[in-house]
């Protein structure tokens, strides 16, 4: 197996701190900003960002939501496997708010495109930004770029970026894995 570790737990924690600081620089007290984690893995990452903002930097009243984009994807009927929907949990208005989408990996851009469509059901944001842990910059199908990114990685077609967060696995780590060997 030719798995390569890209980020370990310590590096992920450092990245979360840095991203939280960048959000504070751009959004101040977050009075007009909401954080939306894309289900499922983006929501875990969003919860960590919100926790750092609240506990380490004492930002009050962080509005954090989770958005399921399963049935907004343009390819959900084309997949061989059945998709399991997650829940959407947005208990605030996004109308005229600055929305920060949070996801684990930016790959083709299709998830973000689906999120842009899905969020319209909850109001019209004043603006939308994107925060990702990993940016796979040379794999876009759509012209979407992150405003905040933890790390940039270039992988070849047979490789995949696998994000393990302790909420779903035993430890935090980001790997590059060879899909042909899996």
What can you tell me about this protein's structure?
- The protein is α/β, with parallel strands linked by helices and 182 residues long.
- It has a single domain, classed as Rossmann fold (3-Layer(aba) Sandwich), CATH 3.40.50.2020.
- Helix content is 25%, strand content 27%.
- It contains three helices and eight strands, in the order E-H-E-H-E-E-H-E-E-E-E.
- The chain has helices spanning 9-27, 41-56, 110-119; strands at 4-7, 33-38, 63-67, 98-106, 127-135, 148-152, 159-164, 173-178.
- It has a five-stranded parallel sheet.
- Helix 1 (9-27) crosses helix 2 (41-56).
- The protein is globular.
- The chain starts with a strand and ends with a strand.
- The model has no long low-confidence stretch (mean pLDDT 90).
**Domain count:** 1
Helix content range? 10-25%
CATH topology: Rossmann fold
Helix/strand/pairing category? alpha/beta
Unreliable stretches, pLDDT < 50, 5 or more residues?
none
How would you sum up this structure in a few lines?
The protein has 182 residues and is an alpha/beta fold. The chain has helices at 9-27, 41-56, 110-119, and strands at residues 4-7, 33-38, 63-67, 98-106, 127-135, 148-152, 159-164, 173-178. Strands 3-2-4-5-6 form a five-stranded parallel beta sheet. A three-stranded antiparallel beta sheet has the order 1-8-7.
